[in-house]
């Protein structure tokens, strides 16, 4: 599956953004989908994942994400979303979507994801 992330941009602290990740191919609904982010000089960080049907979701237990981000998917549109609210400057990063076949939403290292989007830059100004 090929992935194309979009929706990033520059936003003021407290604002919102919705990221989208469009997938090609007929088997999108067979993949666990996840969002990760990477800030300059830091390691890639798990943000959220959603099961194949969308019925299960798992979020980073980091207090920096909890309660502000929501992951969703629309299998009819082959798209996964990340709604980000109450954005903070520390959310500034490149956000990547990934796909894991026969995966688990609890895979947080990223190594289990076989496909990645190109990343979309999110910049939050203070």
> What is the string of helix and strand elements?
EEEEEEEEEEE
Largest sheet: 7 strands, mixed
Distance between the termini: 37 Å
* Cα-based radius of gyration, to the nearest Å: 13 Å
Question: Approximately what portion of the residues adopt beta-strand conformation?
Answer: over 45%
Please give a structural write-up:
0% of the residues lie in helices and 50% in strands. It is mainly β and 126 residues long. It is globular, with a radius of gyration of 13 Å.
Short description:
The chain has strands spanning 2-6, 9-12, 17-24, 31-38, 45-50, 57-59, 69-74, 79-84, 93-101, 115-116, 120-125. It is mostly beta strands and 126 residues long.
Helix and strand topology:
Elements: E1 2-6, E2 9-12, E3 17-24, E4 31-38, E5 45-50, E6 57-59, E7 69-74, E8 79-84, E9 93-101, E10 115-116, E11 120-125
List keywords for this structure.
7-stranded mixed β-sheet; globular; 126 residues; 4-stranded antiparallel β-sheet; single chain
């Amino acid at each position: 599956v090929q992935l194309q992330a979009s929706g990033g941009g520059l936003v003021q602290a407290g604002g919102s953004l919705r990221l989208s990740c469009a997938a090609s191919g007929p088997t999108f609904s067979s993949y666990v989908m996840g969002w990760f982010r990477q800030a300059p000089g830091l390691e890639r960080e798990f943000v959220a994942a959603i099961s194949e049907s969308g019925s299960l979701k798992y979020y980073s237990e980091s207090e920096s994400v909890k309660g502000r981000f929501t992951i969703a998917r629309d299998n009819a549109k082959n798209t996964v979303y990340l709604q980000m609210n109450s954005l903070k400057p520390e959310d500034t990063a490149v956000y990547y979507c990934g796909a894991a076949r026969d995966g688990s939403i609890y895979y947080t290292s990223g190594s289990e994801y076989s496909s990645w989007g190109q990343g979309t830059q999110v910049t939050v100004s203070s």
